[in-house]
Amino acid sequence: MNQPYIMPGAEPFYFPGNSTGCLMIHGFTGTPKEMRWMGEYLHKKGFTVYGIRLAGHATQLPDLVRTRWHDWIISVEEGIDILKMTCKNVFTIGLSMGGILSLLAADRYDIKGAICMSTPFELSRDWRLKISKQISSIVPMVNKGESDLQNKEAAKSHLDYPVYPTRSIAELNDLLKEMQNALPRINKPVLLMHSKSDGLSYENSVKIHTLLGSQDKEIFLLEKSGHVITEDIERNEVFKKAEIFIKRLINF
Questions:
Q1: pLDDT at 123 exceeding the cut of 90
Q2: Is the pTM of this model over 0.85?
Q3: To 5 degrees, how large is the angle CA 225–CA 25–CA 221?
Q4: Which of the residues 43, 57, 194, 198 is marked catalytic?
């Protein structure tokens, strides 16, 4: 019997509900699993929920290395199109790189609003980023640090790739440039959520908020969680805030 190609437990998910659709977008090297608890919560509130698997993710590392930032945007576009088959309104809800993609969706597609969690504005200003494509054949992988998840049980069951492919970091950097250029054009409502204890400083969300063209924009800060706020100890606050944001915009 052949083994599943997608990591067990990391499969996409779809929960049919009402005419408001929530597109759940996971992070860089992550999997749909990190968005599943939030998806289940929003489905219980009546919404249609689709947790996508971004191109190159949740399978094998070489798949991610071959993937380009355009492929990640296409994954989001396909997800929006699927939700629009049954939904009047669509919200993009993304974590980390998923937040970048959520913002780009707000610039490019007809969505109702964007929720962006633990979203970077830029990577570190390491000079090697400029030549990361060239050095990826010499230094193909970058090790990850320790997880900053305060929910230790969630940390044990978290599913992602164990390292960062250098070639893929270059693509992420290019994706960030696309987002930075798009920010002043975005006029959709945006909710930014970030933890002050995230290893990726919440100042990233402050910079995004400052440059956003939208008149309807908000930052919601947590105190104790790590980067993956959808799985951490304050996740219920995150879920509730997202619910309130969505309901306000659809007059629910």
A1: no
A2: yes
A3: 30
A4: 198
